[in-house]
């Protein structure tokens, strides 16, 4: 399960689907411009618990995180997958 700070209902996790898509499917507001290609940085999340159950960031994500000056714990939801429970904060919750 993915628990999103400020929301009561958890989102079911799946190791085969990005966290961005899981959140979108559950109608959780999260911003994206590039549609999940690690280019816009709008899907930034802070992982509060469970980062050890996530994939490691790849080169494109690392590049974007560096450009955003994102510190430890930050990930791009569109590049992130989890095989277990997580607790996250959505940095840009606007879906606009
Ligand atoms: S949706 Fe654009 S970087 Fe993730």
Describe this structure in words.
The protein has 96 residues and is α+β, with helices and mostly antiparallel strands. It has a single domain (2-90), classed as Ubiquitin-like (UB roll) (Roll), CATH 3.10.20.30. Helices cover 17% and strands 18% of the residues. The protein contains 2 helices and 4 strands. The protein has a 4-stranded mixed β-sheet. The chain is globular and about 30 Å long. The termini are far apart. The model has no long low-confidence stretch (mean pLDDT 95). Bound molecules: FE2/S2 (inorganic) cluster (FES). FE2/S2 (inorganic) cluster is lined by residues 20, 32-34, 36, 38-43, 64, 76, 78.
Properties at a glance:
single chain, 96 residues, alpha+beta, Ubiquitin-like (UB roll), 2 helices, 4 strands, 17% helix, globular, binds FE2/S2 (inorganic) cluster
Quick overview:
This protein is α+β, with helices and mostly antiparallel strands and 96 residues long. The protein has helices spanning 19-25, 59-67, and strands spanning 2-4, 44-49, 74-76, 86-90.
How many discrete structural domains?
1
Rg, Å, rounded: 12 Å
Order of helices and strands: EHEHEE
CATH architecture: Roll
Our count of helices gives 2
Secondary structure layout plus pairing:
Layout: E1 2-4, H1 19-25, E2 44-49, H2 59-67, E3 74-76, E4 86-90
Bound molecules: FE2/S2 (inorganic) cluster.
FE2/S2 (inorganic) cluster (FES) binds at residues 20, 32-34, 36, 38-43, 64, 76, 78.
